[in-house]
Design a protein that fits this description.
The protein has about 80 residues and is an all-alpha fold. It has one domain. It is built from 2 helices and no strands.
Amino acid sequence: MIPFAGIGVGVFAIWTSHQQKMLKMQSEISAEKAAQYAVNNEQLEQRVRVLERIVTDKGFDLAGQIEDLRDTPEVKELN
């Protein structure tokens, strides 16, 4: 009966080690996704600032500015 207890303890130790490795990998993936979201968020904030500047600046023609923006190359996504 005692040899079975030793095997059980060994299996539990292996399982625990595996779970720790899985948690570490999930944590690294989450950190990477958070960094990607931060970059995407910064890009969106910059675009909103441009739009706010266009809408609030009364010295410029809004339609002309929108057309100028359509001619600029698009920002590539970070996928």
